Amino acid sequence: MRRAAALAAALALVVAGCGGDDESASSSKPRLVVSAAASLKEALTRCSRAFDGATVRLSFAGSDELAAQIRQGVKPDVYAAANTKLPDALAAEGRLSEPVVFGSNRLVIAVPASERAVGSLSDLARPGMKLAIGSESVPVGAYTRDVLGRVAAGERKRILANVRSNEPDVKGIVGKLTQGAVDAGFVYASDVKATDGRLRAIALPARVAPTVTYGAGVVKGAAQPEPARRYVEGMVSGGCADALRSAGFGPPPGQ
Amino acid sequence: MRRRGAFAALIGIALAVTVAFLTLPVVAILVHSTPGALVDSLGDPAARDALWLSLRTTAAALAIILVVGTPAAYALATRRFRGRSLVVTLVELPLVLPPAVAGIALLAAVGPAGLIGGFLDDTGLELALTTAGVVVALVFVASPFYLRQAQAAFMAVDDRWLEASRTLGAGEARTFARVAVPAAAPGLVAGTALALGRALGEFGATLMFAGSFQGITQTVPLAIYDRFATDFDGALALSAILVAVSTGLLFAVKLVRGSEALGGAAG
């Protein structure tokens, strides 16, 4: 009987231990869970270590996947997306409070640094060119389709015919590029900067370049609403805003 | 006596918790996906493309695994040579590799910038982001399941049968084809089913190595992930189809090998 009780106690400990890894390790600091667009990875990873008053746990994926998680009832404290459409939609559904615009980015054509055959958008239409773009539902893929919507129909068709992969997030595109699996792709300027020279950015003509703005908000029912609010403020002006600027993000439009 | 009663209660509870934990997510998929949604999801061309692609690539991968893996497993089971246990460990390694590691490893090996990428490029063979690349990823992650099972099945074949066959004048090849393979058949079938299930569900290595493109590299698991953000019901319906296929496979294995099959598969 005693042995059985000991075994049960051990089991209970194991189960209890699974829930509380961080809390027990870092004493009384609350844990702030931030779900953020994959393109924010480098900047937020850098500034979150210095965030005061909470241990920040970051989760990066396509903005659309993270929004879908929130719609399924997952409750991070902060949601930061590579567009304003998804935060606005979540706010309209009552799942996010007061979304703010905290930064901007530029969509560019990215090529491996050694690639010399691509110099402009029309080069992507050449037969045999291999491209990776974002899937339709992730912001980077939606922006890419906006761009292609503004070029001549024939050229658009030829460019789309060269697409080899619709990646679920922007880092997937970067990976395919750095591995040489594709010749070019559409990513954000900050993603190219994060590769430390392994990729080269080619600017899009102003007439086709989309406006890329980033929105964030506090998730309704967040476990840590107060640190969450401070974290979002810091992305607009504060430690994370600085990290975003040095990672190649622009200020929110009109600032 | 009381102690035994307490222990019986404890293992009973442990079993109940285990069963509930493992079946609840699967039950949730089936509860959430109405038959109507299932039919609707099949009306989506992208879903049909994904199913067709999954069937084709899995079939191709299985063909390669059976043709190359069966004699390879036979060699491992019947030959004694130096470094044999090292070889066994090496071929089983993908079993414990996370799929993402498998994807990175494939890129590093046979990707355009990989170890033998230049050589493959010279021969005109392109794997990354192609349907052939999906098959390569599936073979890489699924073949150890078959090899393990097949090797065990061949080792369980009574040596005297093989000797008798040779004594009666059958060559080594004939003994393999006519005696060893039929005798090991139940084990080979179980291994095939395990490899099939693993190949059908492959996600990470495929996404990293072969990418995601409708009709070319977007298999059912990738299509499920693609739908997750925009069409949760569609994702559930496709998941339900995979659950049904996997359940069917598991039952098939049980039928072929009897109750001993799953014990063998787990070991």
Give a verbal description of the structure.
Chain A is α/β, with parallel strands linked by helices. Chain A folds into 2 domains: 2-104 and 212-246, D-Maltodextrin-Binding Protein, domain 2 (3-Layer(aba) Sandwich); 107-203, Periplasmic binding protein-like II (D-Maltodextrin-Binding Protein, domain 2), CATH 3.40.190. In chain A, 40% of the residues lie in helices and 24% in strands. Chain A contains 11 helices and 10 strands. The radius of gyration of chain A is 21 Å and the shape is elongated. Chain B is mainly α. The longest helix of chain B has 34 residues, at 45-78.
Question: In a nutshell, what does this entry contain?
Answer:
Chain A contains 11 helices and 10 strands.
Key terms:
heterodimer; A: 255 residues; alpha/beta; D-Maltodextrin-Binding Protein, domain 2; five-stranded mixed β-sheet; 10 strands; B: 267 residues; mainly alpha; 13 helices; disordered C terminus
Proportion of helical residues of chain A: 40-55%
Sketch the major β-sheet of chain A. Answer: 5 strands, mixed
Oligomer: heterodimer
Gap from first CA to last CA of chain A: 70 Å
Average the pLDDT over all residues of chain B and give the rounded result.
Answer: 89
Estimate the mean pLDDT confidence of chain A: 89
**What is the helix tally of chain A?**
11
Count the DSSP helices of chain B: 13
Compute the number of structural domains of chain A.
2
- The proportion of strand residues of chain B reads under 5%
- Which regions of chain A have little confidence, pLDDT < 50, spanning 5+ residues? 11-26
Largest beta-sheet details of chain B: none
The low-confidence runs of chain B, each spanning 5 or more residues with pLDDT under 50, are: 259-267
End-to-end distance of chain B: 33 Å
CATH 2nd-level architecture of the largest domain in chain A: 3-Layer(aba) Sandwich
| CATH structural fold name of the largest domain in chain A | D-Maltodextrin-Binding Protein, domain 2
Structural class of chain A: alpha/beta
Global Rg of chain A: 21 Å
